[in-house]
């Protein structure tokens, strides 16, 4: 085989190996570890309506914690999986503000009527502007906000009892979050 043909045949092999490397790397990455440039910064300035009352304005000045800012939508199957945990947290005194992201108002309100509403109120971000400013990749995502309105942590994905107990709960308490006991959370 001539040197030219060998080089010609090796190019697809090299490309295949490079693609395989990047594919394997993507499969083994943890999406919850996505970096956020917003951590340790104020909640970005915004002026949006609430989901329940279109005439009621919400601004970043109203987002003072400690609280969870949970990004959710009715089109998000993982949000439905997470919802019972949010209900449990809210019932035990954890403040949660919803960020209804790129959703239909009527569908979101109907969803909360059917499944319960764990949110103190919901910011209606129909165009995703606030989500974009927060660096949201999708839903669900949750931001821990301290009493000064500073984002202290960002969690990508579903809040399971394990995630709450092992990751979010310690950070919640470090922010000075008071609590009522959450039975499944207090184990360990």
Walk me through this protein's architecture.
The protein has five helices and seven strands. It has helices at residues 3-27, 77-91, 105-115, 129-134, 161-174, and strands spanning 47-50, 57-59, 67-72, 96-101, 122-125, 141-145, 151-156. A seven-stranded mixed β-sheet has the order 2-1-5-4-3-6-7. It starts with a helix and ends in a 14-residue tail after the last helix. The model has no long low-confidence stretch (mean pLDDT 88).
Please give the share of residues in helix: 25-40%
Total of DSSP H or I helical runs spanning 4+ residues: 5
- Uncertain segments are none
What would the average pLDDT be, to the nearest integer?
88
- Beta strand count: 7
Over the alpha carbons, how many angstroms does the gyration radius reach? 21 Å
SSE topology string: HEEEHEHEHEEH
Q: Which word captures the global form?
A: elongated
Features:
188 residues; alpha/beta
Ordered list of secondary-structure elements with their pairings:
Elements: H1 3-27, E1 47-50, E2 57-59, E3 67-72, H2 77-91, E4 96-101, H3 105-115, E5 122-125, H4 129-134, E6 141-145, E7 151-156, H5 161-174
Parallel strand pairs: 3-4, 4-5
Antiparallel strand pairs: 1-2, 1-5, 3-6, 6-7
Question: What's this model, at a glance?
Answer:
The protein is an alpha/beta fold and 188 residues long. 38% of the residues lie in helices and 18% in strands.
């Amino acid at each position: 085989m001539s040197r030219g043909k060998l080089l010609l045949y090796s190019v697809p092999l090299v490309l295949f190996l490079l693609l395989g490397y990047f594919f394997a790397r993507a499969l083994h990455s943890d999406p919850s570890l996505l970096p956020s440039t917003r951590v340790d910064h104020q909640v970005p300035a915004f002026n949006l309506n609430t989901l329940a009352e279109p005439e009621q304005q919400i601004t970043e000045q109203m987002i003072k914690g400690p609280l969870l800012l949970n990004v959710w939508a009715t089109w998000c199957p993982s949000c439905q999986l997470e919802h019972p945990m949010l209900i449990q947290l809210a019932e035990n005194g954890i403040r949660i503000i919803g960020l209804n992201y790129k959703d239909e108002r009527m569908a979101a309100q109907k969803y909360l009527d059917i499944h319960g509403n764990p949110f103190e109120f919901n910011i209606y971000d129909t165009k995703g502007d606030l989500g974009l400013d927060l660096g949201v990749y999708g839903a669900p995502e949750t931001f821990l906000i301290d009493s000064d309105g500073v984002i202290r942590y960002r969690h990508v994905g579903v809040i399971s009892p394990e995630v709450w107990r092992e990751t979010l709960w310690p950070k919640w308490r470090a922010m000075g979050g008071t609590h009522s006991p959450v039975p499944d959370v207090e184990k360990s």
